[in-house]
Amino acid sequence: MKVKTKRKVPYIEPLQQTECGVCCIGMILRYYKSYQTMQELREHLDVGRDGSTLLQLKQLMDKLNFDTKVYKSSAEGLKDIKLPAILFWDNNHFVVLEKISEKYAVILDPGYGRRKISFKELKETYSQYALSGQPNEKFMPKKKGKSIWFDFIPIISSKKSLYIKIAIFSIISYFLTLGMPIFIQNLLDSVMLKKDINYVRDSTIFLGLFCVVYVLFNYIKNTNLIKLKVHIDKNVNSTVFGHLLRVPYKFFDIRNKSDVLFSANSCFVIRETFANQMINGLIDCGAVLFISYYMYKQSVLLALIAFLIFGVNLVLVALTQPMMFEFSKYLLSEQSKVQGVQVESIFSILGIKMSAIEDDIFENWSKKYGSYLSKYNTKERVNNYVNTLISFIQVVSPVIILCVSISIYIKGYVTIGQVMAFYSLSSTFFSLAHSVFNTWTSFVNSSVYLERLGDIINTEKEDDSKSLIKKDITGDLKLENVSFAYSSKSEKVIKNVSLNIERGQKVAIVGKSGSGKSTLAKLLVGLYSPTGGDILFDKIPLNKLDKKYLRRQLGIVPQDVSLFNKSIYENISMGRNDIDMDKIKKACEITQIAEEIESMPMGYHTIISEMGMNLSGGQRQRIVLARAILNEPKILILDEATSSLDYINEKQVSDYFKNIGCTRIVIAHRLSTIIDSDMIIVLDNGEILDYGSHMELLKRKGQYFKLYQANFNNEKEVHESVAV
Length: 724
Description:
The chain has about 725 residues and is of the alpha+beta class. The chain has helices at about 20-30, 40-45, 55-65, 120-125, 155, 160-195, 195-245, 250-255, 255-265, 270-300, 300-345, 350-355, 360-410, 415-455, 515-525, 545-550, 570-575, 580-590, 595-600, 615-630, 645-660, 695-700, 705-710, 715-724, and strands spanning about 65-70, 85-90, 95-100, 105-110, 115-120, 125-135, 475-485, 490-500, 505-510, 530-535, 540, 555, 635-640, 665, 680-685, 685-690. It is about 55% helix and about 15% strand.
């Protein structure tokens, strides 16, 4: 079977930080006119947060019925490889090689789009390995699925009455617009025949009333259009943001936060495209057909000339549209990167200032912004050429029609009224045709934004089935051979961990950096699901519990906390009506933050800036601790969460949670905070290396002994502790 191919390799933009390999496979599939979605390819490959290897890409292409081969070659050797091929790039990336010659190469970089690079740059950046593959006899290209627009139609079509009103008033307005030339035709023909001044006067009055009615109907249409825009905006934004809040934590873990923000803010495209373009576009199509029929009935010759010019316009748009669509993809990708640098810089401004790297950050932003401007300039220049040509056709076409109609008027085939009507209608015809082309182009280009929004709404939400158990837990927690890997292709970061934690116990988890402590904490609160084993709360497996209901009974205080752009009072109470100011003050006194809050001009009503950036790290941490005290969680996870407290207050907080029977799991970096733990677990490379009390572990002189020794840097103190 001969497989059809495209003229060029289509570009696919990555929406996850580590999916450049998946994008490359997607581009090659589309080159062979097979339209697997990115979601389908992600499910096949399961990239996770660590990316993919060339071997994994080969295995996926084999699975998709490609005959593949991995080459180890120099840049010169790439000339003998069947293209397109996937190249290992700069030792950390994948690109598609589309074309190569003695002087240059054309690559599709998932991060930057199509690039023409010198052979020298190819030699410097190509990392010796290439994957080439061609479809075999079992290959069956997948047809295009439904348009991404269909995912949004149920969201925006609930107010059918508004659409009907807008359609009715739009149709009436169009008929009034089209009726004007016909009325003028009859007026001119009648005046030429009757030469009656009274008829002219009556016709002028009628024309005035005609204009008033036209303006009135247009006003009503536009009023309803505004209502529709508000309705679409509300529905789309509510749906997208509501869905975004309910997707699994993994979604955010493998995506750039600024990319997610950029995608969520793309909702305006649906409002503008659907409200402005779709309804008008459909009515414009109807108007074009109506005018075409009327012109054909009036003069076949003039109608055929108009249709021929329309055909030239259509071919021009069809030829340039794929190129403009690709430009739109590049531009959107660059725009997202520029915003990413800006957002990252604003939230990291303290580190930037402390490191005095403002110039470096600005240079990085300038490069990305320069790349954006370059692509914007290219797109607009091409757009300008196309629009100039279309505008020229639009202006010249009625003149051509007028010249031809005058010549046939002289021969007596049409009346002067028909000449004027045809000229006026042809102007409207070409204007509406241009509008139809613009609508088509807008819908195609807006698909770039919709792909990003689709990435959000097509991601499955966390399981919130009614069959899940809503249980008030006591604080007993058990882990049975729990393992976890970020993807099915990556190594396990938690390996066969078994624990039995009883209600009210204080359990500490220690280990070197990267040993899996924070990952284990996220597993315990259900942010990740184990890939093996079970986590049980009061003997009930986590996957059978309603996670939302469960998390309301859990507390987690991370080392690096962020707060909401609300008052301190609201950040602590979190909307609970059963909490009064006295309780909040008491919680703040326990966490040693009350005095600092009360010294602020607005006290507990002081507004915290975004992410809590107007407070110190210690203040943010203590506010979150105060929130945890008020919530009285059954299980509390503390990730070095008391580092901002002195010893007395740290003990006060610890005793408070102990007295209410709260199970505490402490991820410790400062070992002095965990000496009184009921059990200390030593984690190494995702496995439990040792466990026991502080004294038991010191006596064994294992990994904990070394950590404790390094922590205090006082071997004598350690030996004295062991002797005691």
